[in-house]
Write a structure and sequence with these properties.
The chain is of the alpha/beta class. 18% of the residues lie in helices and 27% in strands. The structure holds flavin-adenine dinucleotide (FAD) and iron/sulfur cluster (SF4) (2 copies).
């Protein structure tokens, strides 16, 4: 098979169909990388810290982030960055600063590093903004659900919506284990007071492991079960007039989406930001769907996660695939229409999945990457 067998341009492949257009909420918000330092670390609970990063070492460069987006943070001594959602509305941040809520993960490298000792003043590199999660422009009721440090993006969205005086009702269910895991209560009460006067704002913490004799008289159970029982099953909320926002652990979000889908809510009204980690699958690129727009390359937070390759060699056994990177000195320098995600380098931020207008990137695609010259298999490019 010649290297160029089967080559055809994207317009030909999509014969007669309009080319998918980039999402304008992601387009134009290219990832910028800023060196900076840790301005402060403050304990929110026994296992969650507020981290404030100062970008640009005093230069205060703008970030142009929207509430709901996230950044990749990298510190010395750790091989890869990690993704963290902005935890304040951008307009509430001091110039050049970004705030994050970070929860300690057992055996976690980044969170373990942060919790180990006082890191104030240490160097940090921030790449962002990333992702397409954020406030939609409708006037529908906002149904927000977060768990653990998923408070971050939802808090940021609600704070921004409050500042913008959006004329919408908001209902926020927050899932935590016990009352010791609750934080931002005063700040949320303040948002409630400042919310649009003609609309309601309600915050409902739901505890799953609070001791029966603790005196807690609030909601109990798993947050998505509670939402179902107390808002959907009794008809309290009309989902036809609602937009849902989820943020936090993937199992909570999957369960919440199932509950809403079973109740008839359309997937297009559900927005979410899943806190994937190293155990989540890396996305795979289907090059036969790619329209060569470069959006994924413009939002990737690390240099080598998505690579232009001239040759892909799929391993028959376990172990990573091999590839030849397009390099003017070592290959012809031609672009071979083949992008490849190196799962060893990928940090599972899924920014490329959000940015791709052609649905060419997904963690659900078969691990064998498809190229324009046929399905990549052992030794075939
Ligand atoms: C878009 C996005 C936004 C996020 N926002 C936030 C946020 O605002 N706040 C927050 O606290 N977190 C957030 N996260 C999660 C965050 O990026 C990290 O995954 C989390 O902090 C753990 O990082 P770590 O370095 O401490 O742990 P890691 O060292 O990355 O380990 C994480 C977990 O994965 C397991 N693990 C590691 N490697 C593997 C492997 N190869 N196979 C199987 N399991 C493995 C570890 O045992 C551990 O339990 C976000 C994630 C995403 C994708
Ligand atoms: S390949 Fe995609 S998901 Fe992985 S780090 Fe790069 S942009 Fe993020
Ligand atoms: S894979 Fe990358 S270059 Fe191809 S269509 Fe998607 S975003 Fe554009």
């Amino acid at each position: 098979m010649s290297d160029f067998a089967g080559f055809h341009d994207p317009a030909e492949r999509l014969a007669g169909q309009p080319l998918p257009a980039p999402d304008k909420t992601v387009y134009g918000r290219r990832v910028a990388t800023h060196r900076g330092s840790i301005k402060s670390v403050r304990s929110l609970t026994y296992d969650t810290y507020e981290l404030v990063v100062e970008r640009g070492n005093g230069g205060q460069p703008a970030l142009n982030a929207r509430a709901g987006q996230y950044a990749a943070l990298k510190v010395a001594g750790l091989d890869k960055p990690r993704s963290y959602s902005f935890a304040r509305a951008p307009e509430c941040e001091a110039a050049g600063q970004s705030t994050f809520f970070i929860r300690l993960v057992p055996n976690g490298q980044f969170s373990g590093w942060l919790f180990e000792k006082d890191r104030t003043g240490e160097e940090i590199v921030l790449s962002g903004p990333l992702g397409g999660f954020g406030l939609d422009p409708s006037s529908d009721r906002m149904l927000c659900v977060a768990g653990g440090s998923g408070m971050s993006a939802i808090f940021s969205i609600l704070e921004h919506a409050c500042n913008e005086r959006v004329a919408r009702d908001a209902l926020f269910f927050y899932g935590a284990r016990t009352s010791k895991d609750l934080y931002c209560l005063d700040e949320l009460a303040e948002i409630g007071k400042r919310w649009h006067p003609k609309h309601s704002f309600e915050f409902i913490p739901v505890l799953s492991e609070e001791p029966e004799d603790s005196g807690w008289d609030g909601a109990r159970g798993f947050v998505t079960d509670y939402m179902k029982k107390n808002c959907l099953d009794n008809g309290r909320i009309d989902l036809a007039q609602c937009k849902a926002y989820f943020c936090g652990p993937p199992p909570m979000i999957d369960s919440g989406i199932r509950v809403l889908a079973d109740a008839g809510m359309s997937g297009s009204c559900i927005f979410y930001d899943k806190f994937e980690d190293a155990s989540s699958p890396a996305p795979v690129i289907d090059n036969t769907k790619c329209v060569l727009c470069d959006e994924c390359l413009l939002v990737k937070p690390t240099d080598n996660c998505i690579i232009e390759v001239s040759k892909l060699i799929r391993n028959s056994g376990p172990g990573p695939d091999r590839y030849e990177v397009v390099s003017p000195s070592e290959t012809s320098g031609l672009y071979y229409n083949t992008l490849y995600i190196d799962e060893e380098e990928c940090i599972r931020c899924y920014a490329c999945v959000d940015a791709c207008p052609a649905n060419a990137i997904s963690p659900d695609y078969d691990k064998t990457p498809k190229t324009l010259r046929g399905v990549a298999a052992r030794g075939i490019t």
